[in-house]
Design brief:
The complex is a heterodimer of chains A (about 675) and B (about 325). Chain A is about 35% helix and about 20% strand. With about 675 residues, chain A is of the alpha/beta class. Chain A starts with a strand and ends in a 5-residue tail after the last helix. Chain B contains 15 helices and no strands. Classes of the chains: A alpha/beta (about 675), B mainly alpha (about 325). At the A-B interface, helix 2 and helix 4 of A face helix 9, helix 10 and helix 15 of B.
Chain lengths: ~675, ~325
């Protein structure tokens, strides 16, 4: 039996509502963190996972308070400790790595100072020794040239670098326990894989215990020894990570795993209906009852207790776990997508380039953009009617930029965007007539920001109907109700405001608004990134259904390759605003592929401890595309030499119609680099 | 950076040019002119002609603008009508008096405002916050002519501690002026301090709720060190611009307060010269007040730029 370093006992945390009722965020949580182990806490947003992690540091957010229970560290209760004593534990014994390092580093202090501060507080080192130590720490988190990084301000680093600095800062106090709150959410796939690999290395190297909080089972699978699944403020399942991921004996975990799209499976994952109950909802029975596929009559009135199963070393909160145990191998079934591809090409993008360069006075007078190295260049894609084409790449790959140009939010520098073979959309934006605007609609990543908070759902959906079709009165209302039904929302949603909707419902409203214009093309900009996995699956299924009904064409932008695999017919891989590979999605996801596609695919995290990400290229950030040669030359591990640096690679076309832009012969590309 | 400063200065000069044009055109299109005002009923025939010649009003408007502008740049605003004194000499002591009043209010008001704002934010919703916030809201909402009148009534008339209104020659020396300015300073500082304290409070509260402050707490940084290193530098940065506007407002003459206390500053001069239809003085005042606003805002922007590492590097990179 290894030593227990943090003991959470019957912890309940909550807040007082305006009516004075006690509303629980965490309900009676008990768990132990052992020395040297990594525990993953997983759950959807609002499940209380971050509150639990913060409580393990004796920190309760403004507005919340401890209702009962304790967090015991070194046999003292952190939640009752004085601030002065907590200061000696925080950073020294228990350290935190925050979700968003960009926000969590103080903007006016240099990186070096912020690490030094932790060293001053938690070590007895002298000044020169501390300087030495800062370099050492920055080296350990694999930041290039530590001396110069230390002199920079947080905003001068990339997202991945900021996250590494946060890790270095946490390690400065050589803590016994590291708490990680979604440390890789918001990072690019490749960066995320690298940071996780670093964390794994640190866990092994220092023997530190870790608590890893995330909504992403893929990330959790890569790091944790043990997993705690939370739902609605309670622990519903806790056990060794392999067992939980391979044979989940709680219906929620089972559903969660089924709703994650996988690289190996084309088609849409099954969604879990419903959503997590709001804190404060009173239910006598199981909190998961409404969404459960295995529920029985008794689940409605009796709430199950957390039960420890000796033989599995697992605790589960479900009456039915025995029946699940027998057949809970997650046999993922997917809804194969039907392609509604027609032969007619609806959008031709040829030789398009887009520049963000500022126009100088002469250019403004001549109405031109002079930039010999534009952000996006040489984009040639012909999109067929009814097709779903996905643009993928890391941040800065130009995928959203291309969407903006198609939508008319950004003018192109050169090239032609042609709709339906005849209408040229690449001319000045002001020349688009209402019909040009109607045929292309956008759905944004974050419905919180794309829906006007002061409009009701009715007003939001009414706007395109009024604008494009001049509908009024009864007819308008009829159309709104129809659209709401199409996105599976009831009529009663009409009078609601966006803030009264859940994340998934908001995105449905945004989808309904886009379809209200009866568009030919819908541009989807990371539409599921802000949603929980179970909701993501539902939205993807909805989009697919609507497409089959209306014959719409989707241009889908995403950084998540598994999501792209699930929904798209064709994939275009972009790096630094240049196309690397275009082809049918089943071929892009197989060899031969462009070295960059290989990097992206290798970095995808699957919720399976046996599938490790393959890190092929360094996750450096290039600020500008190279002047000449291949766009990927700076990071390519298969670089041939001068030819890659001087000549733009040719398009090579495989038998299945997959186009790869690389100097390396197809036969060579066929071979996977790392097995 | 240097390029940016030059650009901002040029923009400021253009603003001043436009202000001078507007005031010149404004005084031009108004019915009547300096001579008709000065001569009143005798404004006809030979006498009017003579006055026009003397003041140079008989040449076309654009010529007059150019010569006025050329002189103004050299600090010569021509003659005031009422006293037939050079405007330069009228303005000098007034500017000095306004400066004395403004700097007194600034030196007292800003530190108090900062302290009150920080205290209320750090003890948010606790007793010190509730007490101070109530007082500041009161101080903010009572118009200055009421608070000024009350001050005169209580301190000057009932208690007879200080003179109620300022009855001193315009060009009095600083030390003779001192007892006279205490009441006006209190009246102005009250409103200004209250405004700024509220501003500082919300700014500090916002920063206290930020993720980097939470991170500093979780890093084990002691409370006061956190406040001084992580909170205040970030919270007070946006306050610089508000402070600048307040200073410009003060220097530009706090009209109401100056009138109530009969204080010989720029604000009262504005009122006097408008009611006397002393157009050359109004023109000069407009240009001077505009330059005060422009230059103080410029200074504030540059200061923000210097102190905010984020803006600084952004500018350099461009």
């Amino acid at each position: 039996m290894t030593e227990i370093i943090q003991k959470v006992k019957n912890l309940s945390i909550g807040f007082k509502s305006k009516k004075g009722e006690e509303i629980l965020i965490l309900r009676n949580i008990s768990t132990n963190i052992k020395k040297g182990e990594t525990v993953g806490i997983v759950g959807e947003s609002g499940s209380g996972k971050s509150t639990l992690a913060l409580a393990m540091m004796g920190y309760v957010k403004h507005g919340l308070y401890t209702i009962g229970g304790e967090c015991e560290f070194n046999s003292s209760n952190l939640l009752k400790m004085k601030n002065r004593d907590l200061e000696k534990i925080r950073g020294r014994k228990i350290a935190m790595i925050p979700q968003n390092a960009g926000q969590a580093l103080t903007p006016n202090l240099k990186i070096g100072y912020q690490i030094d501060e932790a060293l001053q507080l938690h070590s007895d080192l002298k000044e020169e020794e501390r300087e030495q130590k800062i370099s050492e720490l920055l080296n350990k988190v694999r930041l290039p040239s530590p001396e110069t990084i230390a002199l920079r301000y947080p905003h001068e680093l990339s997202g991945g670098q900021q996250q590494r600095v946060a890790v270095a800062m946490a390690l400065a106090g050589t803590p016994d326990l590291l708490l990680l709150d979604e440390p890789t959410t918001g990072l690019d796939v490749t960066t995320q894989a690298h940071v996780l690999e670093l964390l794994n290395f640190i866990a092994k190297d220092t023997g530190t215990s870790m608590v890893y909080v995330s909504h992403d089972l893929g990330a959790i699978a890569q790091v944790s020894d043990r997993i705690i699944v939370m739902y609605s403020g309670e622990i519903v399942l806790e056990g060794p990570s392999r067992d939980i991921l391979k044979k989940p004996i709680h219906p929620y975990t089972y559903g969660l795993l089924k709703s994650i799209p996988k690289l190996s499976l084309a088609g849409l994952p099954q969604s879990m209906p419903g959503s997590q109950p709001q804190p404060g909802t009173i239910h006598r029975g199981c909190s998961f009852f409404d969404r459960c596929d295995f529920s029985e009559e008794k689940c409605k009135s009796n709430s199950p207790q957390l039960e420890y199963l000796e033989e599995l070393n697992t605790s589960v909160r479900c009456f039915n776990h025995k029946s699940l145990m027998n057949d809970s191998q997650v046999n993922q079934t997917v809804n194969k997508i039907k392609t509604s591809l027609q032969d007619k090409e609806i959008l031709n993008i040829s030789e398009v380039s887009i520049s963000y360069a500022k126009q100088n006075l002469l250019d403004q007078v001549l109405n031109r953009i002079s930039d010999d190295n534009p952000t996006v260049k040489d984009i040639n894609i012909n999109i067929k009617k009814g097709e779903t084409i996905a643009l993928v790449g890391e941040s800065g790959s130009g995928k959203s930029t291309i969407l903006k140009s198609i939508a008319g939010l950004l003018r192109t520098k050169g090239g032609i965007i042609k709709f339906d073979q005849k209408r040229n959309l690449s001319s000045d934006l002001k020349e688009r007539d209402p019909n040009d605007l109607r045929i292309i609609q956008l759905i944004f990543q974050n419905p919180d920001e794309s829906l006007n908070p002061n409009h009701t759902v009715e007003e939001i959906i009414a706007q395109p109907l009024k604008l494009y079709f001049g509908l009024k009165g009864e007819e308008l209302k009829k159309n709104i109700i129809e659209l709401l039904q199409k996105v599976r929302l009831g009529e009663f949603y009409m009078s609601r405001y966006p803030r009264q909707l859940s994340g998934g419902e908001k995105q449905r409203v945004a989808v309904a608004r886009a379809f209200a214009a009866k568009p030919d093309i819908i541009l989807c900009d990371e539409v599921t990134s802000a949603l929980d996995v179970s909701v993501q699956a539902a939205v993807l299924n909805l989009l697919q259904q609507l497409k089959e009904d209306f014959g719409t064409t989707y241009i889908f932008v995403s950084h998540d390759l598994a999501v792209v695999r699930a929904i798209s017919d064709r994939v275009a891989v972009l790096y630094q605003g240049r196309l690397c590979e275009v082809g049918p999605s089943k071929d892009v996801y197989q060899f031969p592929s462009h070295p960059y596609t290989e990097v992206l695919l290798g970095a995808v995290l699957e919720p399976d401890p046996d599938i490790k990400p393959k890190l092929v290229a360094e996750d450096i950030v290039e600020e500008k595309p190279p002047q000449k040669g291949c766009s990927f030359q700076g990071r390519c591990s298969r670089i041939l030499g001068d030819i890659c640096k001087s000549e733009v690679p040719p398009w090579q076309i495989t038998n299945s119609g997959n186009s790869i832009r690389c100097h390396i012969p197809l036969k060579e590309l066929q071979k996977e680099q790392i097995n | 950076m240097l390029f940016l400063i030059i650009k901002r200065i040029l923009l400021g000069l253009i603003t001043l040019f436009i202000v001078s044009l507007i005031t010149f055109v404004g005084t031009e299109v108004l019915p009547g002119d300096a001579c008709t005002t000065y001569l009143e009923r005798q404004a006809f025939g030979e006498q009017l002609e003579a006055c026009y010649r003397r003041l140079g009003l008989n040449v076309p408007a654009y010529e007059r603008y150019v010569s006025w502008a050329v002189n103004a740049i050299q600090g010569d605003f021509g003659y005031s009508l009422s006293g037939e004194m050079p405007i330069k000499e009228v303005l000098g002591p007034r500017i000095k008096n306004s400066l004395v009043l403004a700097s007194a209010a600034i030196f007292i008001g800003i530190p108090i405002a900062l302290i009150l704002g920080i205290v209320t934010a750090l003890w948010r919703d606790k007793l010190p916050d509730v007490a101070i916030s109530t007082v500041t809201i009161f101080a903010m909402t009572i118009p200055e002519f009421i608070s000024a009148t009350l001050l005169i009534l209580i301190i000057a008339i009932w208690l007879e501690w200080l003179p109620g209104i300022v009855i001193v020659p315009t060009d009095v020396s600083f030390f003779e002026l001192l007892p006279n300015i205490i009441l006006p300073v209190i009246a102005i500082a009250m409103i200004m301090t209250a405004h700024m304290a509220r501003m500082v409070r919300s700014s500090v509260i916002q920063v206290m709720a930020s993720e980097y402050v939470q991170m500093a707490i979780l890093k084990g940084v002691p409370y006061w060190k956190m406040v001084f290193k992580h909170v205040l530098p970030n919270a007070l940065l946006p306050a610089i611009n508000v402070v600048a506007l307040t200073i410009a407002w003060l220097l530009g003459g706090v009209v109401v307060t100056e009138v109530v206390f009969n204080y010989p500053g720029l604000g009262r001069l504005v009122i006097e010269s408008i009611s006397n239809r002393d157009l050359p003085t109004v023109q000069a005042l407009a240009i001077i007040l505009a330059s005060i606003y422009v230059s103080i805002n410029l200074l504030a922007d540059l200061m923000t730029l210097m102190l905010n590492p984020r803006l600084k590097t952004l500018q350099i990179r461009k």
